[in-house]
């Protein structure tokens, strides 16, 4: 029987860094979220206009892209485990990291899905990049749309808090613990082509 630790070290490479694919997916999704969150806040403050509708379209495009990339990230992560935390990380830190990462993946899927559901309930189609019409997931229902809007906002604020905690933990590892937890997500392992 294969040793799971050996398989994990092969998947992440002997350097203990993330693969190129994992790094690109991580930073692409992070950048999209950093754009989508303030865009979502800003567009709600605007009066109804063609400009507001255009921003809503951009926001939806980003959301659908995050959803698709999150599915890809999850598939990649399941077949390419993350490098282990440093030996000095305590049991509670390991649990907190696992719970936070799990919640981040769940939110990267749930937030776009809640937005798509909300658009469907409002009777507003979602057309990815203005080219690919996505099916309505529910029928038009204003009460459901209002509930989904509150859910979408709550999930987004939850994501903002978790992202802040994730960034703080990475900076703590880098600046206080002085380990390689942050660096391994910034640089590709030598010779890694994945």
Which labels suit this protein?
194 residues; mainly alpha; Fumarate Reductase Cytochrome B subunit; disordered N terminus; elongated
Outline the structure in words.
By secondary structure, this protein is mainly alpha-helical. It has one domain (about 5-185): Fumarate Reductase Cytochrome B subunit. The chain has five helices and two strands; from the N terminus they run ααααββα. It has a two-stranded antiparallel ribbon. A hairpin with a 3-residue loop joins strand 1 (about 125-130) and strand 2 (about 130-135). Helix 3 (about 50-80) crosses helix 4 and helix 4 packs antiparallel against helix 5. It starts with a helix and ends in a 17-residue tail after the last helix. The relative contact order is 0.15. Mean pLDDT is about 85; it is low at about 1-15.
Could you outline the blueprint of secondary structure elements for this entry?
Layout: H1 4-12, H2 20-44, H3 50-79, H4 91-122, E1 126-128, E2 132-134, H5 142-177
Antiparallel strand pairs: 1-2
Helix pairs in contact: 2-3, 3-4, 4-5
Q: What is the spatial order of strands in the main beta sheet?
A: 1-2
Structural class: mainly alpha
* CATH fold-level topology: Fumarate Reductase Cytochrome B subunit
Low-confidence stretches: 1-15
Shape: elongated
Helix content: 55-70%
Average residue-wise pLDDT: 87
Counted by DSSP, the helix tally is 5
In short:
The chain is mainly α. Helices cover 68% and strands 3% of the residues. The protein has a single domain (4-185), classed as Fumarate Reductase Cytochrome B subunit, CATH 1.20.950.
């Amino acid at each position: 029987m294969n040793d799971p630790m050996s398989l994990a070290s092969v998947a992440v490479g002997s350097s203990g860094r993330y693969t190129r694919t994992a790094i690109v997916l991580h930073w692409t999704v992070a950048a999209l979220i950093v754009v989508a969150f303030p865009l979502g806040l800003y567009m709600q403050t605007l009066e109804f206009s063609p400009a507001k509708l255009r921003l809503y379209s951009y926001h939806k495009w980003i959301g659908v892209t995050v959803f698709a990339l999150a599915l890809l990230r999850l598939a990649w992560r399941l077949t390419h485990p993350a490098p282990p935390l440093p030996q000095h990380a305590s049991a509670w830190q390991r649990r907190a990291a696992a719970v936070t990462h799990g919640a981040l993946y769940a939110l990267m899927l749930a937030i776009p899905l809640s937005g798509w559901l909300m658009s469907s309930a409002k009777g507003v189609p979602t057309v990815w990049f203005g080219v690919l019409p996505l099916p309505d997931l529910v029928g038009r229902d204003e009460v459901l749309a209002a509930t989904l809007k509150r859910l979408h906002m709550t999930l987004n604020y939850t994501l903002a808090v978790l992202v802040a905690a994730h960034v703080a933990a990475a900076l703590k590892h880098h600046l206080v613990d002085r380990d390689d937890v942050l660096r391994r997500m910034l640089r590709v392992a030598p010779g890694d082509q994945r």
